[in-house]
Structure formats: C-alpha cells, structure tokens
Design a protein that fits this description.
single chain; eight-stranded parallel barrel; 33% helix
Length: 218
C-alpha cells in the first residue's frame, strides 16, 4: 500500500524541516487546494507547491477542490506539480480538453469522485487518467466522518480496471486510519491519503508518527 501525506495537516510553522524529514518515508505529497466556493474552506495554494518543490524529489499531487480547475492548471504545471487531481463534476463539458492539456505538459492527471457519486460518470475518460481518487468523506475539511457507502466505488474501479486492462491507480482520501485500513485494503486501494487520523495526529514527534504508521499500515 502506498502512502500519500496530506500536508494540510502538517505543522505549517516547520514546513521545510518536516518535509526533509518525511522525504524518505512518504510515496507522495498530497496538496489540497480549495477556493472557498466548491467547498466552504481554504487550504493550501500554488505558492505552497512552489515553496516545497525545491525541498523534495517525491511526487506532488494537487487536489483541486475548486469551481474552475482550468484557471489553475498552467500555474500548477509551472510550479512543478507532478499530478493534478480534479473533481469529476467540475470536469463536465471540458474533461477531454483539460486532460489533454495536463498530459500534453508531461504531467499526470487524476479524477476525484465524491461519496455520493458513481464511476459511471467518469467511464468515458477512465482510459486516459493516471489516478482515480475515491473520497470517503464529504470534501472540504480534515477530520470528516468516514462514509462507508463510498467503499463500493473502490471495488468497482478495481474490477473495471482489470476487465479493461487499464493501469490507473486507485487512491482513497478521507478518514484513512487504523480503523478503516483493512476495509480500504480489501476493497482494492493502491494508495491512501493520510492526514490527522492516519499520520499527523499520532504524535507531535514525526519519528513516532512514522513508527506508528508502519505498525498500522505495514
């Protein structure tokens, strides 16, 4: 199981030191970008990605919780973002254009589905994306309640991927922790986004967080 750390949950007063400490542990860095409209919250930004890009060679994944993702793409690409994840409903009417723009700039592209959404809406372009992120909480805030009704989306994606000989990764975002881990693993997840309940909340000591995460998630 791959691990992606949600940097919205880190100690933002110690960004440089913490990232250098985590580089040898995490498979990916997950950056939540919110506009206060798609979700009623604000989080990290393109400027944050610019600031951390020189600190790591690990992939940086921008999760766009915004109404107009097309307005962010060029800046994200220029900032050195490796993977851009966009919510399915904000792709409607421009999915192929935006996917082609991202991939044309040698970046990876992902699509995100919320707990109440079905994979049927994203089937037309599943063969083009590098990742599908299944939200297992309602988007917008760290620490949301786990939505078990979203788990079948993971299983259905794994089945569809096998049947159609595709190779997108299945990432799960939301309340990924020791309580939900076995369920998410058995459903077919490839990568888990860990935030407060699955990494940063274990301890104020990063070494202790790493130790507990290895114990819980293997």
């Amino acid at each position: 199981m791959k691990i992606s750390l949600s940097l919205m949950c880190m100690d933002l007063s110690m960004v440089s030191a913490q990232i250098k400490h985590l580089n040898s542990f995490t498979d990916n860095y997950h950056i939540d970008i919110m506009d206060g409209h798609y979700v009623k919250n604000l989080a990290l930004s393109v400027d944050f990605i610019k600031a951390i890009r020189p600190l790591t060679n690990q992939p940086i994944d921008a999760h766009l919780m915004v109404d107009n993702p097309e307005c962010y793409l060029n800046d994200l690409i220029s900032a050195g973002t490796d993977l851009i994840n966009i919510h399915a409903e904000t792709l409607k009417g421009q999915a192929f254009r935006l996917i082609n723009l991202i991939k044309g700039n040698d970046r990876k592209v992902g699509v995100v589905i919320n707990p109440e959404e079905s994979i049927a809406d994203i089937v037309p372009y599943l063969g083009l994306v590098d990742m599908v992120t299944v939200m297992t909480v309602d988007p917008g805030y760290s620490g949301g309640k786990f939505v078990k009704q979203a788990v079948p989306n993971i299983t259905q994606l794994q089945k569809y991927r096998t049947q159609n000989n595709l190779n997108f990764e299945i990432q799960v975002d939301g309340s990924c922790n020791p309580v939900t881990y076995q369920t998410l693993k058995e459903a077919g997840s490839d990568m888990l986004v860990l935030g407060n309940s699955g990494f940063f909340g274990f301890s104020s000591d990063l070494d202790e967080c790493i130790k507990k995460t290895k114990e819980y998630f293997g």
